[in-house]
Structure formats: C-alpha cells, structure tokens
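Lab notebook page, bench 4
Experiment: in silico fold of construct C2
Operator: M.H.
Input chain length: 191 residues
Purpose: comparison with the prior construct
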Amino acid sequence: MQAVTVTAEGGEGFWATAAPIIPHPLEFFFGVACFAILYFVVAKKVVPRLEQIYAERTAAIEGGMNKAEEAQAQAQAALEQYQAQLVEARAEASRIREDAKAQGAQIIAEMREHAAAEAARITETAHKQIEAERQQAMVSLRNDVGRISTDLAGRIVGESLQEETRQKDIVERFLAELESGDVVREKVGER
C-alpha cells in the first residue's frame, strides 16, 4: 500500500513526496521571521529586564551578605564591649570589696580604740572611787579609833577626856606617830 499525502492545494507535488524533515520554504521563512521577531523582542525587552532583576537580586544578596557581615562585626564589637565592661565591673566589684574590707578593718580598729579608752576611763574612775572610799574609810577609822582610844584612856586615867579639841590633838599625834613608826612603848606603871 502506498501512502498518499494530499496537501491543502489539492495536489501532490515535490514537497508532498519529499522527506518529512525538510520544511516547506514558506514555512521555513515564516519560522525564521517569527524566530527573528521573537529573538528581537526577547533580546530587547526580556533579557535586559532579566539582567536587571538578576543584578538587583545579586546586589540584594551581596547587600544582605554585607549587612550580615556588618551585623556580625557589630555583634562582635558589642561582645567585646560587653566583655570589657564585664572585666571592668569585676575589677570595680573587687575594688569595692577591698574598700569595704579596709573600712571594716578601720571601723574595728576604731571600735577597739574606743573600747580601750572607755575601759581605761572606767578603770580610772573605779580607782578614783576606791581611793575616795579608802580616804573616807581612813577618816572614819581615825575618828572611831580616836573615840575608842579616848574612851579607853579616860577609863584608865579616870578622868574624862571628852574635850573635843584636846581629844583630836591627842589622837592625831598618836596616829601620826604610829604611821611614822616613832611610837615608844611604855610599860604601865613606869614613869
């Protein structure tokens, strides 16, 4: 069986029997013209727009990368600043602790000095009070010894020695002799 191709012109010709790969010259020129027009439109309108979009996208990506690098550099600078501030804060805290220790030691020293001064004052006051009480006891003892002595002497002599002035002079003289160690013992009945 033979295959017969009928064209639109209604007949058979060279192009109808030619190999199906070879195009008809009109179709070829029409295809080349359409391709040229399409190439011109794509080359003049589409490709520049695509190049512009590509350049914008490249710039945006590079700008984003630059911004990311800048942000990373700023973050690194902020980290270094933070670390520097942290070191400074630690040094400040250490200095404050040392100042507090020094002030504490100074306060303790001042309190000890104050306590020592207060103890010395209390001791001095106590010594003065003891001395005053000793003096008072001495005066009281002299008066008691003098009174008892004059009473006893008056009983021995048989005469009243109640005269105040005389009694005081005798007692004072006797006690002064006792303190100086010049008391001479006399035996009773000797004169």
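Observations: The chain is about 80% helix and 0% strand. Confidence is low (pLDDT under 50) at residues 1-11.
Next step: discuss at group meeting.
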